[in-house]
Amino acid sequence: MKADINHVIRFHYRVFALPAGGEALESSFEREPLTVLLGHSGIIAGLERELIGKSSGDRFEVEIAAADAYGEVRPDFVQRVPKKFFREPAKLKPGMQTAVGTQQGPRLVTVKKVGMSVVDVDLNHPMAGKDLKFEVEVVEVREATPEELAHGHAHGPGGHQH
Asked: What is the CATH number of domain 75-122?
């Protein structure tokens, strides 16, 4: 079966920042494959497009431009947040990643500067602005269940657990 929108695909991946040559930024080969319901924004757009048409056992490499990965760096995404919104404000240090509470739930941020009562944080994804190279191995492709389609995500190993 070839992967398409509304199919569930399980795959291993290794991702590198371009230009290549360094260590992988992240890899799934040492754990469960990632499981995604295609067409439901579960992964970056560029990688999802490349998975369409692939079958179990396929291996490929692809380079994804920043715009189709985690987006370009947005300077306006640096904001000043009162310390009261952090769980352990005394432990905050520039460069660390932490979660800050928002109306939409917790959001991962990178600490830029810690002041007396406020913290400057960068809301950009840590891989924003980076062109990426993926090494991918497709493990399984299957049709999504009606429940997965209704929920908008894959269930089971490597997917969402209810």
From this structure: 2.40.10.330
